[in-house]
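Example with several molecule types.
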Amino acid sequence: MLKLKYFELFRTLAVVLIALLLTMLFILLISDNKLETMRIFLAEPVSSRSHVGNVIELAIPLIFTGLAMALMFRMNLFNLGAEGIFFFSGLVAAAVGIQTGLSPFVHPLLAILAGGAVGSMIAFVVGFLKAKWDANELVTSLMFNSILLGVGLYILNYFLRDASAYTTSSYKIAATAQLARIIPGTRVHTGLIVALLLVVLVYLFVYKTRWGYELRMTGANRAFAEYSGIKTGRTIVYVHLISGFIAGIGGSIEVLGMHPRFDWTALPGHGFDGALVAMLAKNGPAAVVLSAFFLAYIRVGADMMSRYSDVPAEMLAVIQSVILLLVSADQFLKFWKNRMLLKEAQKNG
Amino acid sequence: MDKLLEILFTTEFAYSIFRVTTPILFAALGALLSNRAGVPNIGLEGIMLTSALVGVIVSAYTGSAWIGLLGAAAGGMLLAWILAFFTLQLKTDVILGGIAINAFASGGTVFILYMLTGEKGTSSQLASKMLPEVHIPLIRDIPVLGPILSGHHVLTYLSIISAVFVYWLLKHTPLGLRIRAVGENPKAAQSVGVRVKRTRYIALVLSGLFASLGGAFMSMGYLSLFTRDMTAGRGWIALAAESMGRSTAVGTTATSFLFGFAQALSNALQLLKIPSELIQTVPYLATVIGLVIYAWQRTRKAQKGG
Amino acid sequence: MAEAVLEMRNITKVYPNGVVANRDVNFSLAEGEIHALAGENGAGKSTLMKILFGMEDPSEGEIRLRGAKVRFRNPQDAIAAGIGMVHQHFMLVPSFTVAENMILGMEPKRNGVMLNLREAVRITEEVARKYNLHVDPLAKVENLTVGMKQKVEILKALVRGAQILVLDEPTAVLTPQETAELFEELKMLKKNGHTIVFISHKLKEVKAICDRITIMRAGRTEGVFPIDAVSEQDITRLMVGRDVVLKYEKDGRPYGKPMLRVNGLTMAGAHGKLVLNNVSFSVREGEILGVAGVEGNGQTQLVEAIMGRAAGAAGTVEVDGTEIGRLDIERVRAQGVAYIPEDRMRQGAAGSASILDNLISTRYKRKEWNIGPLLNRKKMWKLSESLIEAFQIKASGPAQPIGMLSGGNMQKVVVARESDANPRVLIAEQPTRGVDVGAAQIIHHKMLELRRQGCAILLLSADLNEVLELSDSLIVMYEGEIVAYFDNPSELSEQELGLYMLGTKRQDAERIGRARHA
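Resulting structure tokens for the full complex:
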């Protein structure tokens, strides 16, 4: 039994390895100074304190969206709305952050909670439609992403825009709202602590509470959960509320921690990355942290590569899709798994 | 309001509905085939986008728009085949596989573009070709209907023909019968010797073909070049159209036109003084409303029947 | 004896997960005979036939058809060689017509490309006439009765040129009358020179129609005999390794008050037709009330109505005087109602979840299982261990995913969960379907134990043997109505029961009214 768990880990590591090898292959084919580019990709992210900081900064929003998506995937719900919520909640937090006259402790808290609440409400709509009328949550959530982008840009351009700024962005966010830096020499902010705390809370929630139990059973077999007395419709809705809240505070924290003004004019992409993070982590809250750091690492590596060398960062999109395909491929390395099962069965009898 | 009505009741507007529906209809037909076979193709968006790029590249390098179209089709079918391989052989969840295809397309197209032209945003450097418009001799002279029905891009006409073709395929050919059987009860099909996997491969590759035609239209008809993320969610709208169309050829065509109408409407509204950011949300909003109504009806029917 | 038309020699099949489904099995078929293949679930008969039909590859061994060695890589090979299979779960596409199902995979074409549906209809009519099995080519399969569907299945095999027909548990879903019809058809096919393999564990039927019998147990063949040379007792002994006769000792305790009371339950279905029509009965404390009837006559809806899942049903359902018909499942269960669903994979258990998770699904909310906001996992673990032991569940521990257990063991988990909470009412739907004899015994004993403790049990089962043996009283449902009530079912013959199940016979209202338990 234990061996099976290790097998899953082994398979994930195999996928990671293949991803790295593919990257190396790309570099070999494209770059003019191959070894140097490889070095940049692999080693540059940890070569200096500020670079390590970059990795951590990127990992923070990925932990949030990864958790949000992990909860969804556990329920077999393919709601990809974290993307739109992340964006829009960031805007909401910025709107609160622009106001002045609040204490430096209350201000960010208020902004983040506002963002989380809005995220919850948006996710609630999708969840409600799914629970009540079985509306396809994949398509509705994707549509919401585009709708939120449009509405958000409208609000930005007509209400929050600072015409004196060079780029399309909002008024400056008050210093009292911005999140404090915790690692000198980097831009890593207190959001990291919130993220890690959240991981622990989500873990406890999913595995150790009765609501987490309802979540897991509804995701495993909805009919079974219903017949055992679990109100699955309600479960779907509150999982959406929680997931939306997490994605919402993720977006808020990202804006308050990393941006002096709100300046996103397109969907930032963290929501979709969260899906990859969750899948790589097999929806386990603790594994989400590792997975987020891994993705952040290769992202920063790719960025460095495109900055200091001649391979564009978009190459990573190809690598990411390969990871996606392999990590969810049941049959990948299946013959190994079967051999292990056979040995186990022979041992037992 | 009056101004709005003025804009709507013109032949230009009616003409634009056909034009705008084309990519949606193509992709929706693809969704229909794969869905009926039991392997929903979520990667249509990504296939469309990739085909749009391939069409541009091939037409630029060969100097021929038609060869570009072939290239686009080949590219789309190849991507669909990859999805089929991972889904049917390696047992990847078909939805996650589709998401992976989309992830690949979004960044991958920019990557390939950059590798070839050094540009990341558009393919303007490439001298890509456009496919022609067709002016039908007698029809174009009919008052009112003429300007609406004639003068469309060749792929627009092809999309209508494709809709008829898919209808005929599903209802009147052995392949169509097998596709429907494989989607409804694969065990039954297998027990009489129908090769379930092979039929599903075919369905997926066909869906890739249709999606690629939609993509080719985007970059060689609607516009004359490739820009990043130019499909802008049409693949998703197509999925919604297929779902609302009750997985039938006729229904899917009808709903595709419905969403095309919504998109044409949002284009027309830009002429009025409504903020463009909000207008852009109209097609997506329409899709959500459409889906919700459909889901609500379906639930009500099931409750009555149960 | 006629020459062996089919021989399967030394067949061994080991699955990748280590399960040995067939161990050096020998099976030979004589031309023109009806040959029974008997064995419990898990004995290996399905695997053997899957190998024959090209759906599985044997790990070892060979197949010889009329002396020549053959290898079937897929069903098409087997079909081409003249082997046809009628599966237990019908392999039909519900939305297609009979004709479309008939020609699927061998579609007649017009102009080489188009589907020729008229020809399909003609082929269907021709083969139906030839074998005297009447079907309507244009009817949609989803609208057919079970007996009709089976005819289509048989014709499907025959139209593809099957000389050897394998029938897998063909009478599992038929009434006694439909079974008799089937036997006539089989006799006729035999006369026409076809050879038939009859897979069943209904020994009375096997005795009635077969010429020889091969018995399998635990992946091995226990022997092949002419049917007259072995008694039912002999066959059972060889199938399970001991004399298992389904006879239970029941004490003659008096019943208590009516615990579950159903009154005037009426419900309309999709097309306005009534699926439940004024159903009234009660189950007393310490009583097992059996519900007999062909599947689809309202039994499923009855259970739905009791469990509070049927909106728009008129009438009342009460547990000890408390109306439960409009309550949600959680509150119904709070009244002491336990439920063993007929489809354990769909409603009874969550395959990917652990045994522990499946055992506590009805209790996890209660205070005694929680410490504040957290679940008391330790207590749940102990409970699981004790239940695993009490029910002799073959598993590696409470953490094992339930999906890895065999059907019988999985059902034991379901029964353990439902019976452990001291229910006042137990609704048992097909409690031993697809379950091996040993597990079935344990489940029956548990039900009888609950009966002794005063539980009121409603037993719905298509296994007439089970229903007649376990029930203290019996109602028969036909087209949503109760058409008969018996308070001494062990004296009832299967033939008589079959007449009520088919609606041919019907008791008067006064006798049916006794089901209310005055």
